[in-house]
Amino acid sequence: MPSAQLRRLPARHVNILAGIALLGVACLSAPDAETRSVLELLRVSPLRIMCFTTPCPPWNAMAISQGAEAPGPHPLYLGPLPSLRGPKPVIRRIAAPWRNKDCVIIRGRLEKSGTSAVLFVRRILRSC
């Protein structure tokens, strides 16, 4: 009888280890899915609004807005080029439109903390 129990014991350990491994893989893949869900369509473009009451943003100031439509008077971000994070080729391609006051639609997310901002750019979708 003890030898039969010893033969079953390794299989039980294998099942337990397999379960732990699957749980570990599931936990590791969850943040990636979560990151994808917070990415959104963003428009990086000059603000170009007519302002009649102070304080007025400078005409042509660069802004980051939600969606692909022309930005309204309240963008997500207005100011100097924020810190950029993402694939290096994409980062290089986002700095030029900002400097040249061009318009691009991106897939990414903007994080603001106090007066600083970080733009996470996954992909540049198109010019606008």
Strand content: 25-35%
Q: Return the string of H and E elements.
A: HEEEEHEE
The DSSP helix count reads 2
Q: Structural class of the secondary elements?
A: alpha+beta
CA-CA gap between termini = 76 Å
Major beta sheet, strand line-up? 3-2-1-5-6-4
Write the layout of secondary structure elements.
Elements: H1 2-38, E1 40-46, E2 62-66, E3 77-78, E4 83-85, H2 88-100, E5 104-113, E6 116-127
Parallel strand pairs: 4-6
Antiparallel strand pairs: 1-2, 1-5, 2-3, 5-6
Describe the structure.
It is a single chain. The chain is α+β, with helices and mostly antiparallel strands. Helices cover 39% and strands 30% of the residues. The chain is built from two helices and six strands. It has a six-stranded mixed β-sheet with strand order 3-2-1-5-6-4. β5 and β6 (116-127) form a beta hairpin. The longest helix has 37 residues, at 2-38. It is globular, with a radius of gyration of 24 Å.
